[in-house]
Amino acid sequence: MQHSEEKEIIAQLKKNDDKAFQLLVDLFSKKVYNTCIGMLQNMEDAEDVTQEIFITIHLNIHQFKAESSLSTWIYRISVNKCLETIRSRNRRKRFGVFKSIFSSDGEKALENHSDFVHPGIQMENKERAAILFQAIDLLPEQQRTAYVLHKLEQVSYNEIAEIMNVSLSAVESLLFRAKQNLKKFLAHYYEENEK
């Protein structure tokens, strides 16, 4: 999108123009959904969070000051909403484990995302992709965010730095550490399962 088009859309959005909002959804819904599915690894959660993101954009467009591109601002909101969802999910998991320790049946209330496969993955690669997504799920928040944005969404290092509000060298470091951790996780997985 060209700068002049972006300025026009933003101006219309700030006037609560429904057509401008629909255009925004048309332009960004696929990117937002793909980011959510890469981060959350759950299609229903990704759909729900995508809707929340567009509601947040609609409610907060007046706060957009054009210090970054509209795309960067939307990615930033997307990442933050995904991280909120992951933190909430982790709190529920911890609460479920805590409850199960004291329950009579001892059932653990842990969600299992091991069967998640990104919908864009080819059939013959589904098993390997599921293993990769399990490994991505183990990465620390910042590494996971940088990795998903760069590898799954092809966002440039510069834009990732803006989205995450970190330096370019921090993005490079996060991606390097994410790759190292993924190699370790995957090597461990294959060692365990090749026996």
TrEMBL record:
Report if keyword Transcription is assigned.
Answer: yes
Please give a single GO biological process term from the UniProt record.
Answer: DNA-templated transcription initiation
Q: Name one GO molecular function term.
A: DNA binding
Domain (RNA polymerase sigma factor 70 region 4 type): give its ranges: 132-182
Q: Which UniProt keywords apply?
A: Sigma factor, Transcription, Transcription regulation
Pfam families registered for this protein in UniProt: Sigma70_r2 (PF04542), Sigma70_r4_2 (PF08281)
Q: Which family does it belong to?
A: Belongs to the sigma-70 factor family. ECF subfamily.
- The entry's protein name is RNA polymerase sigma-70 factor (ECF subfamily)
